[in-house]
Protein backbone atom coordinates (compact mmCIF):
# COMPACT_ATOMS: atom_id res chain seq x y z
CA UNK A 1 0.00 0.00 0.00
CA UNK A 2 1.52 3.27 -1.14
CA UNK A 3 1.55 6.02 1.48
CA UNK A 4 0.99 9.60 0.39
CA UNK A 5 3.79 12.13 0.80
CA UNK A 6 1.36 14.28 2.76
CA UNK A 7 0.98 11.47 5.31
CA UNK A 8 4.75 11.12 5.63
CA UNK A 9 5.09 14.87 6.01
CA UNK A 10 2.39 15.10 8.67
CA UNK A 11 3.87 12.14 10.55
CA UNK A 12 7.34 13.72 10.42
CA UNK A 13 6.00 16.99 11.88
CA UNK A 14 4.22 15.17 14.69
CA UNK A 15 7.28 13.12 15.62
CA UNK A 16 9.49 16.21 15.42
CA UNK A 17 7.09 18.01 17.78
CA UNK A 18 7.26 15.09 20.23
CA UNK A 19 10.96 14.22 20.15
CA UNK A 20 12.81 17.39 19.16
CA UNK A 21 12.39 18.99 22.64
CA UNK A 22 13.76 15.80 24.21
CA UNK A 23 16.77 15.89 21.88
CA UNK A 24 17.38 19.55 22.76
CA UNK A 25 17.39 18.72 26.49
CA UNK A 26 19.98 15.98 25.94
CA UNK A 27 22.18 18.17 23.73
CA UNK A 28 22.15 21.14 26.11
CA UNK A 29 23.02 18.89 29.05
CA UNK A 30 26.52 18.86 27.48
CA UNK A 31 26.58 22.59 26.74
CA UNK A 32 29.37 24.60 28.39
CA UNK A 33 27.03 27.42 29.36
CA UNK A 34 24.63 28.12 32.21
CA UNK A 35 22.12 29.47 29.69
CA UNK A 36 20.18 27.32 27.23
CA UNK A 37 20.28 30.05 24.60
CA UNK A 38 23.14 28.95 22.36
CA UNK A 39 25.74 26.23 22.01
CA UNK A 40 29.09 27.25 23.49
CA UNK A 41 31.03 24.01 23.73
CA UNK A 42 31.06 20.45 25.01
CA UNK A 43 31.39 19.76 28.74
CA UNK A 44 30.57 17.15 31.37
CA UNK A 45 30.64 19.66 34.24
CA UNK A 46 26.87 19.60 34.75
CA UNK A 47 26.94 15.85 35.27
CA UNK A 48 29.83 16.23 37.73
CA UNK A 49 27.92 18.90 39.66
CA UNK A 50 24.81 16.74 39.60
CA UNK A 51 26.54 13.90 41.44
CA UNK A 52 27.63 16.38 44.13
CA UNK A 53 24.14 17.90 44.53
CA UNK A 54 22.91 16.43 47.82
CA UNK A 55 19.32 17.64 47.36
CA UNK A 56 19.03 16.08 43.92
CA UNK A 57 20.69 12.85 45.07
CA UNK A 58 18.25 12.61 48.01
CA UNK A 59 15.28 13.16 45.68
CA UNK A 60 16.64 10.47 43.33
CA UNK A 61 17.06 8.02 46.23
CA UNK A 62 13.47 8.68 47.33
CA UNK A 63 12.26 8.09 43.78
CA UNK A 64 14.15 4.81 43.39
CA UNK A 65 13.03 3.53 46.81
CA UNK A 66 9.38 4.37 46.09
CA UNK A 67 9.69 2.85 42.62
CA UNK A 68 11.16 -0.39 43.97
CA UNK A 69 8.49 -0.88 46.65
CA UNK A 70 5.75 0.07 44.19
CA UNK A 71 7.16 -2.38 41.65
CA UNK A 72 7.20 -5.31 44.10
CA UNK A 73 3.81 -4.75 45.75
CA UNK A 74 1.88 -3.76 42.62
CA UNK A 75 3.37 -6.71 40.71
CA UNK A 76 2.13 -9.20 43.31
CA UNK A 77 -1.31 -7.62 43.66
CA UNK A 78 -1.62 -6.88 39.94
CA UNK A 79 -0.72 -10.48 39.03
CA UNK A 80 -3.36 -11.82 41.38
CA UNK A 81 -5.89 -9.32 40.03
CA UNK A 82 -5.06 -10.18 36.43
CA UNK A 83 -5.39 -13.90 37.14
CA UNK A 84 -8.73 -13.36 38.90
CA UNK A 85 -10.02 -11.24 35.98
CA UNK A 86 -9.07 -14.02 33.56
CA UNK A 87 -10.23 -16.97 35.64
CA UNK A 88 -13.50 -15.89 37.22
CA UNK A 89 -14.94 -13.34 34.75
CA UNK A 90 -16.46 -11.20 37.48
CA UNK A 91 -18.15 -8.06 36.16
CA UNK A 92 -17.27 -5.83 39.10
CA UNK A 93 -13.60 -6.81 39.41
CA UNK A 94 -12.39 -5.25 36.12
CA UNK A 95 -14.15 -2.01 37.08
CA UNK A 96 -12.41 -1.91 40.47
CA UNK A 97 -8.99 -2.79 39.04
CA UNK A 98 -9.01 -0.64 35.91
CA UNK A 99 -10.78 2.49 37.20
CA UNK A 100 -7.52 4.11 38.48
CA UNK A 101 -6.18 3.86 34.92
CA UNK A 102 -9.25 5.35 33.28
CA UNK A 103 -9.79 8.40 35.49
CA UNK A 104 -7.51 11.47 35.14
CA UNK A 105 -4.40 11.46 37.30
CA UNK A 106 -5.27 14.82 38.84
CA UNK A 107 -8.56 13.38 40.09
CA UNK A 108 -6.73 10.37 41.49
CA UNK A 109 -4.26 12.66 43.27
CA UNK A 110 -6.97 14.84 44.80
CA UNK A 111 -9.01 11.80 45.87
CA UNK A 112 -6.01 10.18 47.55
CA UNK A 113 -5.10 13.45 49.28
CA UNK A 114 -8.61 13.73 50.72
CA UNK A 115 -8.49 10.06 51.74
CA UNK A 116 -5.19 10.46 53.60
CA UNK A 117 -6.43 13.63 55.32
CA UNK A 118 -9.58 11.82 56.45
CA UNK A 119 -7.37 9.11 57.95
CA UNK A 120 -5.30 11.82 59.67
CA UNK A 121 -2.24 10.32 57.96
CA UNK A 122 0.94 12.35 57.69
CA UNK A 123 1.88 12.94 54.06
CA UNK A 124 5.31 11.66 53.11
CA UNK A 125 7.10 8.81 51.41
CA UNK A 126 4.56 6.27 52.68
CA UNK A 127 1.59 8.16 51.25
CA UNK A 128 3.36 8.56 47.90
CA UNK A 129 4.21 4.85 47.81
CA UNK A 130 0.66 3.78 48.64
CA UNK A 131 -0.67 6.11 45.94
CA UNK A 132 1.71 4.74 43.33
CA UNK A 133 0.78 1.16 44.23
CA UNK A 134 -2.92 1.91 43.84
CA UNK A 135 -2.23 3.53 40.45
CA UNK A 136 0.09 0.81 39.07
CA UNK A 137 -1.89 -2.30 40.02
CA UNK A 138 -4.22 -1.86 37.06
CA UNK A 139 -1.37 -1.65 34.54
CA UNK A 140 0.20 -4.85 35.85
CA UNK A 141 -3.20 -6.59 35.82
CA UNK A 142 -3.75 -5.65 32.16
CA UNK A 143 -0.38 -7.02 31.09
CA UNK A 144 -0.79 -10.27 33.05
CA UNK A 145 -4.33 -10.82 31.79
CA UNK A 146 -3.14 -10.25 28.23
CA UNK A 147 -0.47 -12.91 28.74
CA UNK A 148 -3.00 -15.33 30.22
CA UNK A 149 -5.33 -14.89 27.26
CA UNK A 150 -2.56 -16.11 24.96
CA UNK A 151 -1.81 -19.17 27.09
CA UNK A 152 -2.83 -22.69 26.08
CA UNK A 153 -5.32 -23.69 28.78
CA UNK A 154 -5.07 -27.35 27.78
CA UNK A 155 -1.65 -27.52 29.46
CA UNK A 156 -3.21 -26.70 32.82
CA UNK A 157 -6.02 -29.18 32.21
CA UNK A 158 -3.48 -31.90 31.36
CA UNK A 159 -1.60 -31.20 34.59
CA UNK A 160 -4.84 -31.46 36.57
CA UNK A 161 -5.71 -34.75 34.84
CA UNK A 162 -2.32 -36.12 35.90
CA UNK A 163 -3.13 -35.39 39.54
CA UNK A 164 -1.68 -31.93 40.11
CA UNK A 165 -3.50 -29.75 42.61
CA UNK A 166 -4.70 -26.27 41.50
CA UNK A 167 -1.80 -24.63 43.38
CA UNK A 168 0.76 -27.03 41.87
CA UNK A 169 -0.65 -26.53 38.37
CA UNK A 170 -0.44 -22.77 38.81
CA UNK A 171 3.11 -22.91 40.17
CA UNK A 172 4.49 -25.42 37.65
CA UNK A 173 2.51 -24.53 34.49
CA UNK A 174 0.74 -21.17 34.62
CA UNK A 175 3.36 -19.12 36.45
CA UNK A 176 6.32 -19.98 34.15
CA UNK A 177 4.17 -19.27 31.08
CA UNK A 178 3.04 -15.85 32.27
CA UNK A 179 6.40 -14.88 33.80
CA UNK A 180 7.39 -12.67 30.83
CA UNK A 181 4.14 -10.74 31.33
CA UNK A 182 4.80 -10.43 35.06
CA UNK A 183 8.32 -9.11 34.42
CA UNK A 184 6.98 -6.67 31.83
CA UNK A 185 4.29 -5.49 34.25
CA UNK A 186 6.88 -5.02 37.00
CA UNK A 187 9.11 -2.92 34.76
CA UNK A 188 6.12 -0.90 33.62
CA UNK A 189 5.08 -0.25 37.23
CA UNK A 190 8.61 0.86 38.11
CA UNK A 191 8.73 3.17 35.09
CA UNK A 192 5.35 4.73 35.87
CA UNK A 193 6.35 5.27 39.49
CA UNK A 194 9.68 7.01 38.88
CA UNK A 195 8.12 9.23 36.19
CA UNK A 196 4.97 10.20 38.09
CA UNK A 197 4.49 13.85 38.97
CA UNK A 198 0.78 14.60 39.35
CA UNK A 199 -0.10 12.01 42.02
CA UNK A 200 3.18 12.62 43.86
CA UNK A 201 2.49 16.37 43.87
CA UNK A 202 -0.76 15.90 45.80
CA UNK A 203 0.39 13.17 48.18
CA UNK A 204 3.92 14.36 49.07
CA UNK A 205 4.70 15.97 52.39
CA UNK A 206 7.52 18.06 53.81
CA UNK A 207 10.93 16.48 53.19
CA UNK A 208 9.61 13.84 50.82
CA UNK A 209 10.58 15.28 47.47
CA UNK A 210 10.80 12.92 44.53
CA UNK A 211 12.88 13.52 41.42
CA UNK A 212 10.01 14.84 39.25
CA UNK A 213 8.97 17.20 42.05
CA UNK A 214 12.52 18.45 42.55
CA UNK A 215 12.95 19.03 38.81
CA UNK A 216 9.67 20.97 38.73
CA UNK A 217 10.71 23.15 41.68
CA UNK A 218 13.87 24.14 39.79
CA UNK A 219 12.31 24.92 36.42
CA UNK A 220 9.01 26.57 37.39
CA UNK A 221 10.85 29.86 37.99
CA UNK A 222 13.02 30.81 34.97
CA UNK A 223 15.54 32.62 37.18
CA UNK A 224 16.31 29.36 39.00
CA UNK A 225 16.84 27.36 35.81
CA UNK A 226 19.79 25.07 36.41
CA UNK A 227 21.69 23.16 33.72
CA UNK A 228 21.81 20.22 36.14
CA UNK A 229 18.12 19.76 35.35
CA UNK A 230 19.06 18.97 31.75
CA UNK A 231 21.56 16.39 33.00
CA UNK A 232 19.21 14.63 35.40
CA UNK A 233 16.41 14.76 32.82
CA UNK A 234 18.69 13.08 30.27
CA UNK A 235 19.58 10.32 32.74
CA UNK A 236 15.93 9.82 33.69
CA UNK A 237 15.01 9.67 30.01
CA UNK A 238 17.74 7.08 29.40
CA UNK A 239 16.49 4.94 32.29
CA UNK A 240 12.87 5.16 31.11
CA UNK A 241 13.68 4.30 27.51
CA UNK A 242 15.87 1.40 28.64
CA UNK A 243 13.04 -0.06 30.71
CA UNK A 244 10.58 0.34 27.83
CA UNK A 245 13.04 -1.41 25.53
CA UNK A 246 13.38 -4.28 28.00
CA UNK A 247 9.58 -4.56 28.25
CA UNK A 248 9.28 -4.70 24.46
CA UNK A 249 11.87 -7.50 24.32
CA UNK A 250 10.56 -9.54 27.26
CA UNK A 251 6.87 -9.30 26.36
CA UNK A 252 6.18 -7.66 22.97
CA UNK A 253 2.44 -7.81 23.57
CA UNK A 254 2.69 -5.87 26.84
CA UNK A 255 2.78 -2.46 25.15
CA UNK A 256 -0.35 -3.43 23.19
CA UNK A 257 -2.14 -4.85 26.22
CA UNK A 258 -4.22 -1.74 26.75
CA UNK A 259 -6.03 -2.44 23.51
CA UNK A 260 -6.96 -6.02 24.34
UniProtKB/TrEMBL annotation:
Q: What is its main location?
A: membrane
Arranged from A to Z, the UniProt key words for this protein are:
Cell membrane, Membrane, Transmembrane, Transmembrane helix, Transport
* Location relative to the cell: Cell membrane
Which BP terms from GO are recorded?
transmembrane transport
- Family matches, as PROSITE patterns: ABC_TM1
Q: Which family does it belong to?
A: Belongs to the binding-protein-dependent transport system permease family. CysTW subfamily.
Q: What is this protein called?
A: Spermidine/putrescine transport system permease protein
Q: Which organism is it from?
A: Andreprevotia lacus DSM 23236
Taxonomy of origin reads: Bacteria, Pseudomonadati, Pseudomonadota, Betaproteobacteria, Neisseriales
Amino acid sequence: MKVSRWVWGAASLVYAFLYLPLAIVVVFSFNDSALNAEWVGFTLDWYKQLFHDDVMIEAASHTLAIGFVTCVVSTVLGTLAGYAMYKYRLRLLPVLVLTPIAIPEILTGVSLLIFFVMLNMTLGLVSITLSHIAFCIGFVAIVVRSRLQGMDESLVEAARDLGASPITAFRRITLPLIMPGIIAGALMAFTLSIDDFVISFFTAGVGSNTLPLEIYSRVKVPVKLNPEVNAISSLLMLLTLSLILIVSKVAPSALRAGGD
